Amino acid sequence: MNTSMTTPRTIVTGTGHYVPPRIVTNHDLEKLMDTSDQWIRERSGIAERHHVDAGVGTSDLAVEAARRAIADAGIDPATIDFVIAATLSPDHYFPGIGVMVQAKLGLGTTGALDVRNQCSGFIYALSAADQYIRAGTYKRILLVAAEVQSTNLDFSDKGRDMSVLFGDGAGAVILEPNPQDDGRGILSTHLFADGNFVSHLWMEKPSSRDCPTFQTSFFDEGRFAPKMEGRNVFVNACQRMPEAVRAGLEKNGLAIEDVDALIPHQANDRISLMVAKGLKIPVEKVIRNIDRFGNTTAASIPIALDEAVKSGRIGRGNLVALTAFGSGYTWASAFIRW
Ligand SMILES: CC(C)(COP(=O)(O)OP(=O)(O)OC[C@H]1O[C@@H](n2cnc3c(N)ncnc32)[C@H](O)[C@@H]1OP(=O)(O)O)[C@@H](O)C(=O)NCCC(=O)NCCS
For position 4, what pLDDT does the model report? Predict the structure, then answer.
C-alpha cells in the first residue's frame, strides 16, 4: 500500500485589483512642482498614476480589490477562513487594515494578519499564506495588498523625487490548496532583509522614540513625509531582485529560460529593465504597467498579476516568477506554476 502523501501546493484561485478613478498625469504634477513630463518618463517610465479623493482610505481600496478577487474565484466570502493584508499606509496608526477588510466583508470573527514589509509586502504575505495552507491550518485565504501614498507625499519641489513616483491602488488574490497533484501552485518563496538600510528608504516620523510622538516641529521640518536615497535604492534594487530570482531558480532546479512571465515590483521601469538585463530574460516576458499606475508599493505585484492573468499573458501551466525590493531593505521572490 502506498501511504505517501504529497503536501498540497497553494494555488491562486482568483485575482482582482482596484485603483481609485482619479488619474493624475505628469502634466498635472508639472503644475505643482518644478518637474517635467519628460524627466519623469525618462527617469521612471511613469506617465500617470491614480490618487484617491479625500475620505477614501487604504482599506476602501483593499475591500474593492478583495471583492473582485472573490468574484473571480466564484466563492462565497463566508468561506474565507483567514485574511492577510499588506500595506505601509494603513488607515490608522493602529490597528492595521486587515481587521477593517475583514469587517467590511462581513467575515465574522475570521482571523486577520497585517504584514508590514513595504514594497516586498505582497511576497512576504504570500509566503506566510503558503505556509498556512501547506500546513493545513487554513483552506481559503484572502490576501490583499493596498496603498494610499498620495495623501502623505510632499508635492513641493523638496519632495519631487518621491512624489512623482508613487500611486494609490490595491490588488488581491484568493489562495487555496490544490486539490490535484498536478504540479500547479506555489513552488517556493524566498525572503531576504538587511536592516542596516532602514534610513535609506523610510518615513522617519511618527516615532515611538519621541516623547511626545507627535510634535509640531516635525511637521514644520517635513519629517512626516517619506524619504529615500534614490541612487542607493536604485543600485540595491537592481542587484537584489535578480539575486532573489536566482535563489528560486536554484531551489527548484530551473533555468531562467523556464520562466514564462517575470513580475518585478513596479518601482521604476528602469529598474525593471535592469533586472531583466541582469537575469538575461527577454523583456517581452517581463510584466510592466508602471506607466499607468506609478509605484503602488505592496499593491504593485498583485495589480500587475491580475492584469497579466486577465489579458492572457499568464495562462495555466505557465511558470511565473515574482520579485520585489523595498524599504527595510527587504527583498523577495516567489515561483508559481500557474
Ligand atoms: C529617484 C530616481 C528616479 C532619480 O533618478 P536619477 O537618474 O538617479 O536622478 P538623480 O538622482 O541623478 O537626480 C537628477 C536631478 O534631478 C532632480 N530631480 C529629482 N526629482 C525630480 C523631479 N521629479 N523632476 C525633476 N527633477 C528632479 C534632482 O534634484 C537632481 O538634480 P541635481 O542634479 O540638480 O541635484 C532614481 O534614483 C530612482 O528611481 N531610485 C529608486 C526609486 C525607487 O524605486 N524607490 C522605491 C523603491 S521601492
Answer: 45
Q: Tell me how far CA of residue 57 lies from CA of 30, 192, 219, 309, in angstroms.
A: 25, 29, 21, 27
Length of the chain: 338
Cα torsion angle, 105, 98, 263, 178, sign = negative
Q: What is the pLDDT of residue 5?
A: 60
Nearest CA to ligand 1 atom 8: 231
CA distance 118 to 265: 11
Query: Radius of gyration over alpha carbons of the chain, in Å?
Result: 19
In short, whether 233's Cβ falls inside 6 Å of ligand 1 is yes
Place of cell 524599504: 327
Q: Is 209 in the pocket of ligand 1 (CB under 6 A)?
A: no
For position 269, what pLDDT does the model report?
98
Distance from C-alpha of 325 to C-alpha of 321, rounded to nearest angstrom:
14
Query: Contacts by 136-141 with C-beta closer than 8 Å and gap 24+?
Result: 136/177, 137/82, 138/81, 138/82, 139/81, 139/176, 139/177, 140/75, 140/79, 140/80, 140/81, 140/82, 140/174, 140/175, 140/176, 141/80, 141/81, 141/82, 141/83, 141/84, 141/174, 141/175, 141/176
Is there a contact between 61 and 97 (Cβ–Cβ < 8 Å)? no
Ligand 1 centroid to 298 CA: how many Å? 21
Strands 23-25 and 261-264: unpaired
pLDDT of residue 3: 44
Give yes or no for residue 230 CB within 6 A of ligand 1. yes
Instruction: Give the max Cα distance, the chain.
Output: 74
Atom of ligand 1 nearest to the CA of 325: 48
What is the 3 state secondary structure string of 202-219?
A: ECCCCCCCCCCCCCHHHH
- Whole-model pTM: value is 0.96
| Atom of ligand 1 lying closest to residue 162 CA | 1
| Grid cell in block for residue 16 | 482582482
pLDDT < 50 positions in the chain: 1-4
Res 222: pLDDT: 87
